[in-house]
Specification:
Order of helices and strands: EHHEHEEEEHEEEHEEEHEE
Number of strands: 14
């Protein structure tokens, strides 16, 4: 395979200096800033204490895999999907996640992921797919959380190349979707994936990976199970109300993957630090998924 292996990290730069800024602030403005910082620090301390109090909550990772009794509202097929995960400090995530949600960890370590994939057969339950509307590409930036013992996914951002899907998900699921131009190409077992967000804040992703051999089904208690076997998502509306949506599918048919190249600002555009090192990879060729409506929690 004559391809260059590499990993370029996104960067966030600033040109404002502390000296130039503070020379423009009056004494009264400076006093007000001090008060705000004090209130912010107090809030961070309160959030940290609540998070620590919930850290010992018993998380049931098996019951959530059972199919809900009610009917789903949507069916989708996901495929050509790769999970890219990095460990990350919990403190970097905390201020971007609702206070009631506890950051989920594996052996004390939080994780952040980028998940590019394609979708087809997207349709409401009991209706056929509509040509040109039922196929799209998507990428999400995610971490993992739990509430009342129920583990799930928290999305920092989701990008799709369908304005209808973006509008629908923002409205019905309160998810932070963005419009983007996305291309996916597969040649001889290698997938090339490019994304350029057309909304603000701008973000880009260029990556290639080689599809590897099938892996055994992820076992409960393993890192692969923790990262991939997630059966609900959490979302927050503009009024601060928290919601949960259930999903159901067969266990992920995971495969190995080899990273060929990666250039991304997806994580950085969400106000998070660039992760260190190369990601842990899990690939899946296809999976049928049912989705249930959100419920306030």
């Amino acid at each position: 395979m004559n391809r260059q292996r590499g990993f370029l990290k996104g960067q966030i730069l600033t040109s404002v200096t502390v000296k130039d800024y503070f020379t423009r602030i009056t004494f009264r403005e400076g006093l007000e800033m001090t008060k705000k910082v004090g209130r912010s620090s107090s809030k961070k301390s309160s959030n940290a204490k609540k998070s620590e109090a919930n850290a010992d909550e018993v998380v049931d990772r098996l019951s959530i895999r059972e199919r809900p009794d009610s009917l789903p509202i949507m069916h989708q097929n996901w495929g050509k999907l790769i999970f890219m995960h990095w460990p990350i400090e919990q403190e970097a995530l905390r201020e971007l996640i609702p206070e009631r949600l506890t950051i989920d960890t594996f052996e004390g370590e939080a994780w952040i992921g980028i998940t590019p994939f394609t979708m087809w057969g997207v349709r409401p339950t009991f209706t056929p797919p509509v040509p040109f509307l039922s196929e799209l590409h998507e990428t999400n930036v995610r971490t993992y959380v739990h509430l009342d013992g129920v583990p799930g996914v928290w999305f920092f951002s989701l990008d799709a190349n369908s304005s209808l899907a973006v509008m629908g998900a923002r409205t019905l699921f309160h998810l932070p979707y963005y419009n983007a131009e996305i291309e996916l190409k597969e040649t001889d077992g290698v997938i090339d994936y490019t994304l350029s967000r057309t909304d603000e804040p701008h973000a880009e992703l260029e990556t290639s990976w080689a599809i590897g051999e099938p892996l055994p089904e992820a076992e409960p208690g393993s890192l692969a199970f923790f990262l991939t076997e997630r059966y609900c998502l959490y979302a927050e509306d503009s009024s601060g109300r928290l919601y949960r949506s259930r999903i159901h599918h067969a266990p992920w048919p995971l495969q190995e993957a080899e990273l060929i190249s990666l250039r991304s600002t997806m994580i950085e555009s969400d106000g998070l630090p660039t992760p260190a090192g190369e990601p842990l990879l899990h690939y899946a060729e296809k999976l049928a998924v049912d989705i249930w409506p959100i419920k306030e929690v």
